[in-house]
Amino acid sequence: MKTKICSLILAFASLPLFSQVGINTDTPTATLDVNGTLRVRVTPSAATVTGYQVLAQDVATTEVFALDPQLIIAASGTNTTMYAAKKTAGISLLSLGLFPTGFRSVNFLQAERTIGSASLFSDTDNTYTIPSTGVYAISFSFRYGTGLQASILANSPGIGIVRTRAGVATTIDSRPFSGANLLVLSLTISETTINSLYSFQAGDKISLGLTGSTALDVGLLGSSVASFYIYKVSN
Fold first, then answer.
1. Whether pLDDT at 141 is above 70
2. How far is it, in rounded angstroms, from Cα 89 to Cα 224?
3. Angle made by CA atoms 142, 143, 146, in degrees to the nearest 5
4. I need a surface site. Which of 2, 34, 86, 177 has the fewest CB within 10 A?
5. Sign for the pseudo-dihedral over CA of 216, 217, 221, 224
6. Would the pLDDT of 79 be above 80?
7. Which of these, 162, 145, 137, lies nearest to 229 by C-alpha position?
8. Residue 16 pLDDT level (bands cut at 50, 70, 90)
9. CB-side exposure of 171: number of CA atoms within 13 Å?
């Protein structure tokens, strides 16, 4: 009888046994399922990131995973406010009653973005919405037609950036196209760029367009080029 029992024990010992252990839980869902806090008395310090992984917790399942530290470094460097777009055809100008006099915005569309989240930009009013309060860098460039036009100097056309806050639209920056007298012709070098830093509040809407544009030739807008980028640089 003893021989049979010993043989049975040896047989079980040779088989792999799988189980889940729970601490403070009767229904463990992992090899070790701890329902409570964890304390480690001593943890040695690593001299370098290379060759190590960190532990991260899935906020949905509370399961713990090993994570490459470089993923954390890369994620921390992601600027979710970045947005850029370029329009090379089909340019038209939008005029709204709340815009400052003489300003009309370029009809940028989400489909024309070159980088950034579509959720930052609205096709309804062609605006970028500031996601969080802080200082932002904006660059806006516009070339009207071939970049050299006559007979529009009298209206002082140029480009502008308008901020709409709580239903009030304000021109925060503008730059006129520059004029030049070449022999007997009065010409406008109708290509310019605005580059600067601006302080915004979350929810502000940013419109990019032309100032003094009432006398511009709509036909030339078809051969015009416009582009912009915007991103947060500081809180």
1. yes
2. 7
3. 170
4. 2
5. negative
6. yes
7. 137
8. low
9. 18
On whether the CB atoms of residues 91 and 222 are closer than 8 A, the answer is yes
User: Would you say 111 and 205 are in contact if contact means Cβ atoms under 8 Å apart?
Assistant: no
Q: What is each CA distance from 17 to 12, 31, 183, in whole angstroms?
A: 9, 12, 96
- Residue 73 sits at φ, ψ, to 5 deg, of -60, -45
| This model's pTM is above 0.90 | no
The pLDDT value given to residue 150? 63
83-234 classified as CATH 3.40.50.300: no
Nearest CA to 162 among 133, 192, 131, 125?
A: 125
Q: Tell me the average pLDDT across 183-196.
A: 75
Element (H, E) at 233: strand 225-234
Cα-based distances in Å from 4 to 8, 20, 215 = 6, 30, 105
Beta bridge partners of 38: none
Read off the tokens for 176. Answer: 């006129």
Place of tokens 């950036």: 161
Domain boundaries, the chain: 18-76, 83-234
CA-based radius of gyration for the chain = 31
